[in-house]
């Protein structure tokens, strides 16, 4: 019987062979990079299946996520907010766009995944500075604000905005 316990203890002491999925689940994040799938412990998931976006970087717990495609970038950022009111957040923070040298051309209120959201279109005030344009979607749930932003050059804006819409549709709240 003692021999059995010795083998049992030795078996339990051996480190588990970790696959990519098991190692990531220890961090409470699952990422399948080749399919661009990302599930965050912050309560959301997103994937880039059937789009041109490739998962490039992710921060711990998924506070910042970056996908890239030819000449454009898509990012997801999560922030805790005091009030789960995206309208109030936008009203209080619209001036930050000016601070970063951006001109908001349109802010459109929409329904996104059964939640209130805003689509914000912006470009640099000084058009000589950078020729980058942005489309941003802001939505909130349970004191978490998610900002999904696509940025790319005006010359291929039609291409990256259609790809942006595709990946935004792949976003979902998980809790």
Count of alpha and pi helical runs: 5
Which runs of at least 5 residues are low in confidence (pLDDT < 50)? 2-29
Mean pLDDT: 79
Distance between the termini: 47 Å
Number of strands: 11
- Give the helix/strand class: alpha+beta
- Compressed to H and E, one letter per element, the order equals HHEEEEEEHHEEEEHE
The share of residues in extended strands comes to 35-45%
C-alpha-based Rg, rounded: 21 Å
Summarize the biggest pleated sheet: 7 strands, antiparallel
Share of helical residues: 25-40%
| Approximate shape | globular
Largest sheet: spatial strand order: 4-5-6-10-9-8-7
Name its key features:
26% helix, disordered N terminus, 175 residues, 42% strand, alpha+beta, 5 helices, seven-stranded antiparallel β-sheet
Structural write-up:
The protein has 175 residues and is of the alpha+beta class. It has five helices and eleven strands; from the N terminus they run H-H-E-E-E-E-E-E-H-H-E-E-E-E-H-E. It has helices at residues 2-13, 20-26, 86-93, 95-99, 157-169; strands at 30-32, 37-40, 44-46, 54-58, 64-69, 72-80, 102-112, 115-124, 132-141, 144-153, 172-173. A seven-stranded antiparallel sheet has the order 4-5-6-10-9-8-7, with helices on both faces. The chain has a four-stranded antiparallel sheet with strand order 1-2-3-11. A hairpin with a 4-residue loop joins strand 1 (30-32) and strand 2 (37-40). The chain is globular, with a radius of gyration of 21 Å. The termini are far apart. Mean pLDDT is 79; it is low at 2-29.
């Amino acid at each position: 019987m003692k021999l059995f316990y010795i083998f049992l203890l030795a078996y339990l002491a051996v480190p588990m062979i970790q696959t990519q999925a098991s190692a990531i689940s220890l961090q409470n994040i699952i990422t399948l990079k080749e399919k661009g799938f990302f599930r965050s412990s912050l309560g959301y998931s997103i994937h880039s299946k059937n789009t041109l976006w490739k998962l490039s970087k992710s921060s711990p717990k998924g506070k910042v996520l970056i996908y890239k495609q030819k000449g454009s970038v898509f990012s997801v950022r999560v922030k805790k907010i005091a009030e789960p009111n995206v309208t109030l957040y936008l009203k209080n923070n619209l001036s930050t766009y000016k601070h970063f040298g951006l001109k908001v051309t349109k802010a459109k209120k929409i329904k996104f995944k059964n939640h209130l959201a805003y689509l914000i279109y912006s470009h640099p005030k000084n058009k000589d500075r950078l020729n980058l344009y942005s489309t941003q979607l802001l939505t909130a749930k349970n004191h978490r604000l998610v900002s999904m932003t696509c940025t790319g050059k005006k010359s291929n804006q039609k291409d990256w905005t259609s790809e942006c819409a595709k990946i935004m549709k792949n976003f979902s709240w998980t809790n």
